[in-house]
């Protein structure tokens, strides 16, 4: 047993209680409901706060999981054992999937009714979602081995990718930094929302925040153990006290103006770096809204905390439903639609509008146009709901000789017709003209090649390839007539901040 995990045997164990606003989902009636309890973590192994929960039903529909066969019987096992990891991961994944199944209109995962789970896919400080499954790994920690499946922050982040892909599959292969970054932000929001479902965690976070939720805490610090492991290898691979923090001061910038790599105190065009803008705004809205909605703003209760978080998640999901055109500057589109979704409650809508404008995600001009957008949407929503399935996204051809490709590289572009003229703002508060889908695609593809995330396959001769020490290939080239097509393989945890894996 590793020293890193042995310390947690002294951790307190908090029994889970029923949470408010629960809603029953369909279950697989062919399987009996599991009985007993299992051990898990409240949030992350580094905080070492244990939790006992009812045995999760992995076959529960609409979002079932397929775990390794021959798993251990449900029980509360010792921390640091395979048996504990098995059920700790199962409990976190079930909690995350159940949370979104209540809010997102899904009938199954993108790849089918059940999502495969690989608890240990080899030696690497990483985790990924590849449309058919969730893959976790192990690697060296500060005092022992780290298993990425064991952290609810990591597993529920990957669930977020899977949920968003099932809900909006058109976002999967888009060649766009901002859309890829939003996918990562939704993963981090999924980790936050899943953690908030635990009453004892809500109580603990409120106890140390003095009513100010938007401050660094066990909740805002995502994947602390993994962050520690990465910093031990290179301080530039993770933030000071976690992998990524939901508390930050980043404002929107055009990703095409950012460097492809930067210190963690700055933004880069890498999706995991750029994702922090939207995640920070979402968490800030949550904190300000809780203070505004609480009967005692200086001492909100854990039930008020849960209710506000659920409301905000609902606005996000509704905003995504309405953000149908796939375009560049998607942050502004989602933000505008979230504000509109919250318009029935002036407190929520004014706070969301204020935070999004304050972080330059929405320009002042765009924010002022939202009432008119809301009126138009109220008239067009019934017609849109009756529309057929979405057509494939536009494909654009990029000159490809600089990538070593003979012919043209074809990619999916964020180039659908814009529904509304909603934009973000620059440093001078003036609206930023969104880049064309083709320009955004080229910048995104350039970054992929520069960071070594492309599997060349047989498309490019070895002597023309760019090789870096990047084990994880998020994209692959597929040879077609006239050149090649770029395909996404997976979304990974983004543990390699500088573009190289260790």
Automatic annotation (TrEMBL):
Region called Disordered, residue ranges: 1-49
Keyword Electron transport: no
Compositionally biased spans, kind Polar residues: 29-38
Species of origin: Ensifer adhaerens (Sinorhizobium morelense)
Residues annotated as transmembrane: none
Keywords from the named record: Plasmid
Compositionally skewed regions (Basic residues) per UniProt: 1-10
Name of the protein in question: Peptidase M4 C-terminal domain-containing protein
Record has Nucleus as a keyword: no
Annotated Low complexity bias: 11-28
């Amino acid at each position: 047993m590793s020293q890193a995990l042995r310390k947690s045997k002294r951790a307190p164990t908090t029994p889970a209680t029923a949470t408010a606003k629960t809603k029953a989902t369909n279950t697989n009636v062919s399987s009996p409901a599991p009985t007993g309890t299992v051990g898990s973590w409240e949030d992350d192994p580094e905080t070492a706060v244990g939790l006992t929960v009812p045995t999760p039903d992995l076959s529960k529909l609409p979002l079932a999981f397929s775990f390794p066969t021959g798993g251990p019987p449900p029980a509360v096992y010792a921390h640091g054992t395979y048996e504990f990891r098995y059920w700790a991961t199962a409990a976190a994944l079930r909690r995350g999937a159940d949370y979104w199944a209540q809010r997102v209109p899904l009938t199954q995962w993108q790849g089918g009714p059940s999502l495969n789970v690989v608890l240990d896919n080899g030696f690497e400080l990483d985790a990924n979602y590849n449309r058919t499954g969730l893959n976790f790994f192990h690697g060296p920690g500060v005092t022992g081995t780290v298993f990425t499946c064991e952290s609810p922050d990591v597993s529920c982040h990957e669930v977020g990718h899977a949920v968003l892909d099932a809900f909006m599959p058109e976002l999967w292969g888009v060649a766009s930094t901002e859309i890829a970054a939003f996918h990562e932000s939704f993963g981090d929001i999924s980790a936050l929302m899943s953690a908030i479902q635990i009453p004892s965690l809500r109580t603990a976070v409120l106890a140390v925040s003095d009513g100010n939720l938007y401050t660094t805490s066990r909740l805002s610090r995502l994947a602390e153990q993994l962050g520690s492991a990465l910093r031990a290898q290179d301080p530039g691979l993770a933030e000071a006290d976690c992998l990524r923090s939901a508390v930050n001061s980043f404002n929107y910038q055009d990703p095409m103006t950012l460097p492809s790599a930067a210190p963690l105190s700055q933004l880069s065009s890498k999706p995991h770096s750029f994702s922090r803008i939207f995640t920070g705004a979402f968490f800030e809205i949550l904190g300000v809204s809780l203070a505004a909605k609480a009967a005692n703003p200086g001492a909100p209760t854990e039930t008020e905390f849960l209710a506000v978080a659920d409301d905000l998640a609902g606005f996000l999901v509704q905003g995504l439903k309405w953000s149908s055109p796939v375009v560049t500057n998607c942050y502004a589109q989602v933000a505008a639609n979230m504000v509109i979704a919250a318009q029935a409650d002036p407190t929520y809508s004014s706070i969301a509008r204020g935070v999004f404008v304050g972080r330059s995600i929405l320009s002042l001009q765009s924010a002022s146009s939202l009432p008119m957008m809301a009126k138009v949407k109220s008239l067009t929503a019934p017609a849109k709901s009756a529309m057929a399935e979405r057509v494939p996204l536009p494909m654009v051809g990029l000159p490809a000789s600089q990538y070593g490709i003979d012919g043209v590289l074809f990619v999916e572009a964020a180039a659908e017709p814009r529904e509304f003229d909603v934009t973000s703002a620059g440093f001078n508060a003036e609206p930023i003209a969104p880049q064309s889908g083709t320009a955004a695609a080229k910048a995104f593809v350039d970054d992929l090649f520069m960071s070594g995330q492309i599997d060349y396959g047989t498309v490019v001769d070895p002597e023309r390839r760019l090789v870096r020490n990047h084990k994880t290939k998020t994209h692959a080239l597929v040879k077609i007539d006239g050149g090649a097509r770029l395909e996404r393989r997976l979304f990974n945890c983004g543990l390699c901040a500088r573009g190289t894996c260790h």
